Amino acid sequence: MTQGHGLSRIRIGSAPDSWGVWFPDDPRQVPWRRFLDEVSDAGYEWIELGPYGYLPTDPEVLRAETGRRGLKVSAGTVFTGLHHGPSVWDATWEQVSRVAALARSQGAGHLVVIPSFWRDDKTGAVLEDRELTAAQWRELAHGYERLAREVRETYGLRIVVHPHADTHIDTEENVTRFLDATDAGLVSLCLDTGHYAYCGGDNVKLIETYGSRIGYLHLKQVDPDVLAAVRTEDLPFGPAVARGVMCEPPTGVPALHPVLTAAQTLGIELFAIVEQDMYPCEPDRPLPIARRTRAHLRSCGA
């Protein structure tokens, strides 16, 4: 893959999410071989693992399947509820260990960590209060610092925490509170441009203000009209996605060129992984979108 001269530090990739994959096994999702074929065909070199168990979990099988398509793995992903404190640590580490071991076996350097949802993303059922107490914020910060240390020491990976709609790390206020509460030497962000815009944040401002804390990017856009309705109706994230709140670039916000330009100025090698939430979607829909999105990013210099 040839990178544009203007954004030479940005490594573009995609993920199963851009093919409508949210679960390890679901009849409405494309088979994993088709995903690998199509993500390569669309012009991407880097991928994420997606939900654990969707791609092969045997390291040798996965390495062979990605290698023959010219693909490399940038990261794995886990969900955590660390604001609950030590009682959830063992279950968290069991999940993290599986994903981190597979990611490391493929040469990845990152583990994307997403906070747990405060309401069910399918049914909208409220699982817990949408605001954390001061004590829960302390547990959250301590938990992520511990996770960062142990993942680094055990697997040699760097965790990047993903602000996400319908979680406790979502808005500008909560993201900055989280950053201010955690050790900059341990905890970095996976800035998802779509989720941060969905929650009212300014992506470029965050990069300019907390640039040293940006360790990874997810690229997506939000349809402002759909988002306005989502906010009015207070829709959960799952139904919002089904309504098309995350849209194909460059039709939504934020504009990706200014985000990538701001990221380039950080002076570090940075993954920028396309993730257009589309669950569920027709199986023939993702590939043309992926091709057009890759072309758009090339036009931005990436």
Report on the architecture of this protein.
By secondary structure, the protein is an alpha/beta fold. The chain is built from eleven helices and ten strands. The protein has helices at 32-41, 59-67, 89-105, 134-155, 172-181, 193-198, 203-209, 224-233, 237-242, 256-264, 286-299; strands spanning 10-14, 46-48, 72-80, 110-115, 158-161, 188-192, 214-219, 221-222, 246-247, 270-274. The strands form two sheets. The chain has an eight-stranded parallel barrel with strand order 1-2-3-4-5-6-7-10, surrounded by five helices. The radius of gyration is 18 Å and the shape is globular.
Summarize the entry for a quick read.
With 302 residues, the chain is α/β, with parallel strands linked by helices. Helices cover 40% and strands 16% of the residues.
